[in-house]
Amino acid sequence: MKSISAGGVVLGALPGALVGVGASVINPWFLDCPAVWLLGFVLLPGVVFGWVFRGRWSRSRWAFVLLAAEVLGVVWMGWRPRPVVEGVKLLVIGLDGATDQIVEPMIARGEAPGLERVRSGARGVLRSMDPMFSPILWTTMATGRLPQDHGVEGFRVSSQDVRVPRFWDVAEAEGWTIGTWKWLVTYPPRQVRGFQVPAWLASGDETWPEHLGFTKQLELSNRIQRQRVEASSSLVSLAITGVQYGVRAQTLLMALGWKVSERFFDVDRLARRARLEPLRVRLDRDAFVHATWKHTPELATFTVYSI
Length: 307
Hints:
This protein is of the alpha/beta class. The protein contains twelve helices and four strands, in the order αααβαααααββααααβ. The chain is elongated and about 80 Å long.
């Protein structure tokens, strides 16, 4: 019986190892599932190729050396310490719709350990105002002023309609580097020392810096209840593009899984949204952490509307 080909194993394992190591050099957070990557994209293809080429290159000493190098490279990149995101003096996390009625049962069921940890400090119930339109309320929170003062009184607005400084404008005027991630009424974005990614009211994919526009292309091309805007790339290609800007392996695999299920199975509107929202949050999370690491803002905001 022909023995499995050591050279074939090396050949099959090489692409997955090169992608894993190469992507991790550019994006230190990429290999967030090193065991899955090692088994599914390095060792499994290696076994398949070794079986296909069985009987050939079976006794190559260098093949075992190269295979060991591939495996060790993925192991090292996957389990090495991630960079520490430093320099943030103020981090504002916004969860639109995360009222106590929603959050408390989730914490009780153990579904929101992160929220449970950050709720150890002072907290209280905010009074809102009518009309409860998100652009108005988020701008009121950012400015501390009433709608008649800050200028946002509906949905058909842009960042140029805001008449008073928001808290990041004040920080920037004091010399701080800022990074705002999907705070409402920040479209069109402006050039800042840091980054600015507009929220869901944006009619285009402009961001600052421009390369972060891949997150907006995904959002615009997959709108559920509003008019869709055609993206220049598919979901998977956008996720692959985003690898160099923070997208992690698990997020990439989620995107691939979503496209496969969408292609081969009928998915209704609500199920589609239930699958897409966690993927969007993961993409935003990945890109935000990477942007915060790269641009080191002293003030950063991260907002989620999926609830």
